[in-house]
Design brief:
The complex is a heterodimer of chains A (about 110) and B (about 110). Chain A is mainly beta. Chain A has no helices and twelve strands. The chains are: A mainly beta (about 110), B mainly beta (about 110).
């Protein structure tokens, strides 16, 4: 079975600083990879996804992620964060027929 | 836009009560999912369904059952609620063979006292 590890449970950064949220997954077979964001008191919404092709994926709100097959990683980055990016971020990987396996989540806190 | 709605945002129930959580999606998706979300544990899959009247167990089905009588509606049932089922419950849906992208409802925060 797949597993996903988000290496940081909490990441505090200052506004306008760059940020990287780390994600590693277990499988060496072809997978689809996702990052979702959850703002306070809301459900999850898709930030970006990797299905195939270019290993650098761009998403909404200025986020991007890089797929690294050899390191089985899919780290999320943003060059300059804003207060409104405060949220919990989840990495997910495809498994079997139609399912996703989620990581434990990383809580991103932006300080002014 | 895909819309997934859940019947309640907040729910408080007593131990031993039977609890129904309802989820409705409006985009004719074949797949529907129920997750629970707990701090530090991420999202864990309880049950999922690929079609009407079909269901499969996820990773933590104990204490739960589901019902899917219509394509757009997927219900989660707690037969006898217990305090360890206090959690956030998230419903999601996806198209069959759609590269797995799931669309989520706003969640139901259930407290069992």
């Amino acid at each position: 079975a797949q597993s996903v590890t988000q290496l940081d449970s909490q990441v505090p950064v200052f506004e306008e600083a760059p940020v990287e949220l780390r994600c590693n997954y277990s499988s060496s077979v072809s997978v689809y990879l996702f990052w979702y964001v959850q703002y306070p008191n809301q459900g999850l919404q898709l930030l970006l996804k990797y299905l195939s092709g270019s290993t650098l994926v761009k998403g909404i709100n200025g986020f991007e992620a890089e797929f690294n097959k050899s390191q089985t990683s899919f780290h999320l980055r943003k060059p300059s964060v804003h207060i409104s990016d405060t949220a919990e971020y989840f990495c997910a990987v495809s498994e079997g027929a139609q399912k996703l396996v989620f990581g434990q989540g990383t809580r991103l806190t932006i300080n002014p | 836009d895909v819309k997934v709605t859940q019947s309640s945002r907040y729910l408080v129930k007593r131990t031993g009560e039977k609890v129904f959580l309802e989820c409705v999606q409006d985009m004719d998706h074949e797949n529907m999912f129920w997750y629970r979300q707990d701090p530090g544990l991420g999202l864990r899959l309880i049950y999922f369904s690929y079609d009407v009247k079909m269901k499969e167990k996820g990773d933590i089905p104990e204490g739960y059952s589901v019902s899917r009588e219509k394509k757009e509606r997927f219900s989660l049932i707690l037969e006898s609620a217990s305090t360890n089922q206090t959690s956030m419950y998230l419903c999601a849906s996806s198209l069959w063979a759609s590269s797995y992208e799931q669309y989520f409802g706003p969640g139901t925060r259930l407290t069992v006292t």
